[in-house]
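sorry for the late reply, my laptop died twice this morning and i had to redo everyting from scratch. anyway the thing you sent over, i finally got around to it. pasting the sequence first so we're on the same page, its 453 residues, then the predicted structure underneath. double check i copied it right bc i was rushing
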Amino acid sequence: MNSEEEFYDAETGLESDDSCEVSFKDALVLERKQENGVWERRKTLPAEMISRNDFSVWSILKKCIGMELSKIAMPVEFNEPLSFLQRISEYMEHTHLIHKACTLSDSIDRMQVVAAFAVSAVASQWERTGKPFNPLLGETYELIREDEGYRLISEQVSHHPPVSAFHAESLKQEFEFHGSIYPKLKFWGKSVEAEPKGTMTLELLKHKEAYTWINPMCCVHNIILGKLWIEQYGTVEIVNHSTGDKCVLNFKPCGMFGKELHKVEGYIQDKSKKKRRVIYGKWTECMYSVDPKVYDAYKKTGGDSKKLRQSCEGEDQDEKPEVHETVTVIPGSALLWRMTPPPANSAQMYSFTSFAMTLNELEPGMERLMASTDCRLRPDIRAMENGDTESANTEKERLEEKQRVSRRERSKDEEEWSTRWFNLGTNPHTGAEDWLYTGGYFDRNYADCPSIY
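ok and here's the structure:
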């Protein structure tokens, strides 16, 4: 595959309709049906983002330097109106890439699309400076997208340490995608660092292949003063356990002058460690693939040698660099993935993508079908989404106290918490400890679900 056209149909999802202004009031209208009877998902939230202008971040965080933030109660002004379980489901925004990989006959071609999917899974974090709500123990979230051919279930399986497990599967038995995540958040004075502990596992069932990887580090800068901005960095290794192929991706740190901001570069090697493809692009924009010989020749001819403008004044690395240039496409490259532009109202909506806008929406009749532990039923998240900060804080404190009381009662009775949909086991591909889906959620038998709200 040496032409961009061969992968151009890997462009993401639905285009945003900038020509149509949707009011907040319109977003609450329930009679939204398309001509074919399919539910038309909302394009905005019920209320604009809660202002943080009058809120003193430093008053809370000055006591937290070097500490793990998951153990500290935070007011809702820090948050966005989604649970972390819903944030996890955003990995599925670009499921079309998995479907694409399933259709390809060559393992290297499949690997480069899987690599694009791994990058796309973190793309929605761009400019998402709000913290998702910590899930309560036993909290769940289901996501069914029949039009995109998959369903997902996630559960908060541990509170200390906080562990979220998820399992997604194709409706046509083409793939399974699962993992358990223990996000460690630390505050370092001017930034908050998130270490996404936990392995992602993607199984392409038709090809009998399993891929695993761990997501890159994430850092939110300028927590105290200045404009918040996000950087992802670190090495991500994607391993095909069936063929021995490997993709090594380097999410580059910003650097002093910002010239590496958002850049991702890497390569695919086969089981004999021969480089087969070079992968490059930006996790905020797009990813390309090119033959290693073409890439090396391009570098030798100075194709990438023009100097980037020094976009960061001074030497303070926490200052946000301005992005002056997008990805320079090497001739002969194939486009693997391109991010869909955010909706026109994204800045007023916690920088949500069109996909994220829909995640906390309750379609008519859904409450009768889903588990009582589903986070769309959480009153604090719902209040924040509706712009009611006071109620959101009150409900958040109530739920956290209810969780503490339940924990004390279990401790007094020497009772262990029992997970409902996942069990702790061993990942068959890595041999590491992992939370694995036990099945049965979509049988709709929720009689023994705990009362957590």
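The chain has nine helices and 18 strands.
thats about all i looked at so far, will dig more tmrw
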